[in-house]
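My main concern about presentation is that the manuscript never shows what a single data entry looks like. An entry of this sort, consisting of the sequence and the corresponding backbone structure tokens, reads as follows:
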Amino acid sequence: MIQYDVIIVGAGAAGFFAAINIAEQNPDLKIAILERGKEGLQKVKISGGGRCNVTHAEFIPSELVQNYPRGEKELLGPFHQFMTGDTIEWFEKRDVELKIEEDGRMFPVSNSSQTIVDCFLNEAQKHNVEVFYSHSVKSIKNINESWILETNQGDFISEKLVVATGSNTKIWRLLESLNHTISQPVPSLFTFDINDKRIKNIPGVVAKDVAIKVVDSNLESEGPLLITHVGMSAPAILKLSAFGAIELAKRDYKFNIRINFIKQSYDDCLNNLKELKQELNKKTVFKFTQFDLPKRLWQKLVLASDIFETTTWADTNKQQLDALASQLTTAVFQVHGKSTFKEEFVTAGGVNLKEINFKTFESKFHKNLYFAGEVLNIDAVTGGFNFQNAWTGAYLVAKAISK
């Protein structure tokens, strides 16, 4: 049986961040990371299309927490201890400079996730953190105030245990054996599958700012909308998928959404269309795009309003203008399924948040058992927020262990 002072299960973002911070503050501690895979930091590698979306440029805790469908209340205190500015400083001290993009997402200046991976691997090596790959944990037991971990390659023992395995159902089952409650996982970040002639053959088209509501629910969001080969994506959709994760799972991902493409009321839109009928009377409706919509989307909505390609504004009748106003402000689309967002798989689910002390991220049931990252029932919308949760939790775990 191999003995360590601290064992961390999971060689992901939270696991490495916790290990490095613990080792930095406690050079004499013997620290090990156990990872079931052949290598670690896989989620870091694929994040942000291979660029690693490290965090988000939101510097007010009360604003930052609003991006967490699960964890909003619990993370407010922790974010006052360690949040975006601290993350930026942490990486800068290790010669990794971050940059802010227009939408607030933050990436390494190198535009490569390998920069973050190398930073973690170098820091772990520098601080003598031992990483054991291909070590799958089979059981976790607490005996005489020590943690005994049985793996497929031998047993380990430590005084303190940090679980940072992300959405790992096998580890969740082991935690249930320690009397922790697991909220069952459902997908959180996903795109909508929609088969509709109004968006057929126009993949890549982006409506810059729309309002979307799931019919017969309180779920709604705003933001950019991307039309894809199979349906719809981009922040407006992803936010809905995150905040509606549990509700949409109950509906088996079959539901209707109502989209306001121009964020005007139906009446205001109709009045604007009547004015356009006067101003552009000789021009064809199909060719001259209005309301700053992408041309191909405008044309699809015009055709869906029973307006022909050759119809001039002067020739439109009341029914056609009514139909076009409806298409622009209250268009209903039927969702018949979901698709994973890029390669990033985020789930709602994990250890019940009521069972965690969020000052230290320690279990309320077991002394010296800590959690960090998505092993907890915390998830966020896209944009670097899930990583910020990982950094914050791991930092506070390290701080608690270092006392």
